[in-house]
Amino acid sequence: MGILLVFFLSLLSLASTASRVEQKTFIVRVKHEAKPSIFTTHKHWYESSLSSVLSPSTPTQVLHVYDSVFHGFSAKLLPTEALKLQALPHVIAVIPEQVRYLQTTRSPLFLGLKTTDKAGLLKESDFGSDLVIGVIDTGIWPERQSFNDRDLGPIPSKWNGQCVTTEDFGSDSCNKKLIGARYFCSGYEATNGKMNETSELRSPRDSDGHGTHTASIAAGRYVFPASTLGYAKGVAAGMAPKARLAAYKVCWNAGCYDSDILAAFDSAVADGVDVISLSVGGAVVPYYLDAIAIGAFGAADKGIFVSASAGNGGPGGLTVTNVAPWVATIGAGTIDRDFPADVKLGNGKVVPGVGVYNGPGLSSGRMYPLVYGGSGGGDGYSSSLCLEEPLKGDVVKKAGGVGMILANGVFDGEGLVVDCHVLPATAVGASNADEIRRYIDSASKSNSLATATIIFKGTRLGVRPAPVVASFSARGPNPETPEILKPDVIAPGLNILAAWPDKVGPSGLPSDYRRVEFNILSGTSMACPHVSGLAALLKAAHPEWSPAAIKSALMTTSYTVDNRGETMIDESNGNTSTVFDFGSGHVHPTKAMDPGLVYDINPMDYVDFLCNSNYTINNIQVITRRNADCSGAKRAGHIGNLNYPSFSVVFLQFGNHKMSTHFIRQVTNVGDPNSVYEVTIRPPGGTLVTVEPQQLVFRRVGQKLNFVVRVETMAVKLAPGSTSMKSGWIVWSDGKHNVTSPIIVTMQQPL
């Protein structure tokens, strides 16, 4: 096999060779108080603003009007028209649209949420019964049992939303469980043209499966029996089984468009949701250009908790997305269940793998010829590297193959994800894939036939170690603000069983005509709604808590030790994982209900954070809808002084031998009155960390006390452009509660 060379055409060269300039969708931020009285509606005024910059032959079309989390509109414009619009006195910013993509049972029990407990988070919160979770995704399949409304009370009186009815989504699609459903496609169609309604549904109904799956993870009812193709048998339940759901469909065949996502945020806030769950992501850009960050700030400003997936770009560093500090950024871990499907080779060796399949199987005791896809003719690359025409289930089946072994590449390492295949198939890690290839090569050299079979072993419980950081889970450091550790926490995201639509096969392939009530999927998309549901439970148990307080409770009570009693490992390589992999740790719901202390943050604290991020007043207004005064922000000191539940500092070694910084934090007592907390410090290697005072004495619940953390370190020898990261912990304890925060020191050698 030679080296595959792929040529990429840069955006610059594409622009220079384009024969014509095309319209693109832009999101326009307008001054809130600017509408002249001569216009009856904002939309009328926005259309007038557009017509002033468009050529007479261009139709004026406003795609969406925003007013809850953002003040403005979206429209399709030429770049020159966008520049003219930007120059109007009432326009604050014109933001180019991004396309986002989806980031694609046993987890409640694994998380310690048991219905039999007489006290605990489920009981204390009444299973989240009066809370509403808004799921921004691919829609929902309302007929699934996970969304039944048996024994639920009346719809909360605060609810202002609606169930948008269409030909395939009748008025009976909503109930006391699914209390709202909308869809947003104007941005999608502005770029891609009118949707093909033979392959997509112009309604809140889910024709993909992702949205149904994530919604049931967050708030699915108890369903028994539940399984997929006979695997993962048991009771299926979401995190907040009595919480109400509102589905906002924004993702279509070509992706999820910013203008539609922002419209969904706008509606969800106006409708009255308590939590927003968003399992989509894209490129990291400054917050004032990021529609998700802007929408999430508007939601948090109204007291709504926003949970978003960290992305599936792992195991490489700097891959985490949705990194704004007012968003809970969720990575993925494993649970203590897997689906072994081992490969038995003709030489007698057994190679471990995972797979789910229940169709006509391989004959017991029979060995089958084994062919390496990379040597199967043609260019020798497409099949082995899954380029263009991937050698996958239906292709293998049509080609006469009886089974398939999916092998990880070096980058993916040992992380294994289960798929529901259309033929007997298993996935193996990179090192085991090498062993299979070596066996095939050896057989070829000796002119003998390589053979194998796949042995499916069903569902295995009690797997150790667990949890493990999933190989695909996106990693830090935070590409936009390294002083804010991201991801925040991890939650179950590998091989998760949840509800599935009726008209989509479990493999997702058009040729798959099998039908299942539940399906097994993996991704930070699955981890995110776990935390969304947990946030609803915490909000129900503690209505007075802010979104930042809820996130703090989840972060400071999380754990980093697996079921062997050792630090969680990284699935991709088997090594010990780090804070850049798991953030503060893996969520621990029962402890989060009673964290003792919380690090609270109010919206003005975020304004100070943005000021200290060197954003302009205009940039800050785009995000916060506030006329910011950055003169007071300097009192906050620096960007790392946002009252975040973790501590991160980056030292640039500009010839400095000794470097130091400090963090100011404030904690609020939500535990017991008359409690005394003592600090324990485990400093990062090679650093001196001190905390003043070393004792916090609280007289009442709700009392706030401050402390200062000082960090000193010496320069280390690094190559130009390289970095070194060390981590430690700061723990406040009153003997009952342990309030734990990671502290990260990064040394960076400039080029």
From TrEMBL:
The active site is at 137 (charge relay system), 210 (charge relay system), 525 (charge relay system). CDD domains: PA_subtilisin_like (cd02120), Peptidases_S8_3 (cd04852). GO terms for cellular component: extracellular region. Keywords: Glycoprotein, Hydrolase, Protease, Secreted, Serine protease, Signal, Zymogen. The keyword tRNA-binding does not apply. Residues 641-745 form the Subtilisin-like protease fibronectin type-III domain. Residues 128-574 form the Peptidase S8/S53 domain. GO terms for molecular function: serine-type endopeptidase activity. Residues 25-103 form the Inhibitor I9 domain. Its main location: secreted. It is found in: Secreted. GO terms for biological process: proteolysis. Belongs to the peptidase S8 family. This is Subtilisin-like protease SBT1.6. The lineage of its organism: Eukaryota, Viridiplantae, Streptophyta, Embryophyta, Tracheophyta.
